[in-house]
Amino acid sequence: MEEVGTGLLDRLDAMQRVAASAPGGPLLIVAGPGTGKTRTLTHRIAYLCAELNVYPEHCLAITFTRRAAEELRARLDTLLGPVAEDVTVGTFHSLGLTILRENAGAAGLPADFRIADDTERAQARAEAGDNEAAYLKLLRGEGLVDLDELVTLPVRLLRDDPELVERYRDRWRWVFVDEYQDVDAVQYELLRLLSPADGNLCAIGDPDQAIYSFRGADVSYFLRFSEDFVDARLVRLTRNYRSSPPILAAAVQAIGPTTLVRGRRLDPARLDPEAPLVGRYPAASVADEAGFVARTVDELVGGVSHRSLDTGRIDGRSSSVSFSDIAVLYRTDAQAAPIVDALTRAGIPVQKRSHDRLRDRPGVAAIARELRHASGLGGSLAARVRLAGQVLADRFAMPTLDATPAVAPADIWAAVEVLTPLAQRCGDDLPLFLSQIATGAEVDALDPRAEAVTLLTLHAAKGLEFPVVFLVGAEDGLLPLRLPGATPDDGEVAEERRLFFVGLTRAQDRLYVSHVRRRLRHGSERDCAPTPFLDAIDAGLFERLGETEPRRPKDRQLRLL
Ligand code: ATP
Ligand code: MG
């Protein structure tokens, strides 16, 4: 045991070690990007279990996205081995679902309640009109709950039942929350119910990366942690292990005096003096910007086409970059298409995170319904999915029969294809499978090992890191985002700046920032200025790339003649 614990903490720096081995009681870890917060969190859980005889089943670790939860689970598996399975790891939604499943009766739900799919929600909405209570009653009549209720119902249940609160506090004696800066009011209340004011709650986060207030998240819960929890211990981590010094310096300057962390420090742990500057590319057009990304990717990867067996990353010394090392980040999904086009035309593989949820696909909804109703289907879950697809396709081919789940066979087979890996991951647990679909599993969860350039929004990039990052569309109007007829207020601009900060700090070795001069926005071509957030960054940190002279009016006239 001793060596396990010591070995574990050896992989942390002094402050990370203080955080990971802190005694029980409320603990707040405040630290900037890339300082090892998530790493410290997993090591703390592992340390408590391996060294202090904390039972893994007494630990509850909560994150915000399914992907982050999977990542956490994987890291715990590596550190703890099979006992990691006893740690409860999940999102607020999956935690709420667990509590409701265990107390369905008390919550006024049938034991086999399910989460309403989109069709069912739309139907109930149409029937209920504007009446929210009537809407929920209709769902309830069908044994359904709305997705949002996965957190509100457990809160109501616990609020009214102190004994139940005690039971859960006894089960989860150690609670950990990553990205605590993004909790909303209901999630916060759930945490307060699960964790007494002097409980073993470990909250981790960075107020300067609070980017979800548009969804109701409120960074003030983070800022008042020590008022809410008795004798809270505070640990700050200040060494950034992720980014090269120029990238880190640019990011720190970008967040600048608007930081929400008093006395914020972020020092580079990496000291590579040869690290390249931040590339800045002023593009003439969207096509020019996309071409720049494709060309640069090709140079970075293609330039070392002899890399074959060399799996090393670029680090300023070796130049081998693989497609999976590269991410393109943007503010709005609409920006992805020209980049995907240009990369694909250049023969560069891409994977794009889609916000398409499985349950939004007609074929998926039909298969889920078929599985629920047709208990006679046998075999493994994956085989049952295929069989359900066949049943639906056959039904479609016989138009004389009732055609009400009539979904086109192409949609059905596409759904079978995307559902099969999920079915395999769920073993033979049908309720788990259905709840994964209902709680918003994404169609194409990104595969970090896929040999492809990753495209994703700045919001989706939170918590991730890549050796090479392109931040495209760094323009006023996109960052900060301006929607037609609305001017962002100071608070919104500050949040957009934090989003820019999140984007810059995803990069490890190379960062490229680009902006275009003219872009189609809200239906017409507009002149664009670079984002004002760039003004805070020292010009000396940039290498200006491909500077193109703006076309002189004379040229244009000549062409007209
Ligand atoms: P973010 O705010 O972006 O979520 P974070 O604080 O959670 O960042 P991590 O993702 O945990 O940071 O760590 C960033 C990177 O630094 C990872 O690659 C991690 O392995 C590495 N790292 C963290 N701590 C150390 C350390 N003590 N020694 C070496 N590498 C470290
Ligand atoms: Mg993290």
TrEMBL record:
Catalytic activity, as annotated: ATP + H2O = ADP + phosphate + H(+); Couples ATP hydrolysis with the unwinding of duplex DNA by translocating in the 3'-5' direction
GO CC annotations on file: cytosol; DNA helicase complex
Domain Plant heme peroxidase family profile, chain residue ranges per copy: 215-532
Keyword annotations: ATP-binding, Helicase, Hydrolase, Isomerase, Nucleotide-binding
Location of the UvrD-like helicase C-terminal domain: 245-509
Highest taxon of the lineage: Bacteria
Span of domain UvrD-like helicase ATP-binding: 10-244
EC supergroup of this enzyme: isomerase
Entry binding sites for ATP: 31-38
GO biological process, one term: recombinational repair
GO molecular function: 3'-5' DNA helicase activity; ATP binding; ATP hydrolysis activity; DNA binding; heme binding; peroxidase activity
EC assignment: 5.6.2.4
UniProt protein name: DNA 3'-5' helicase
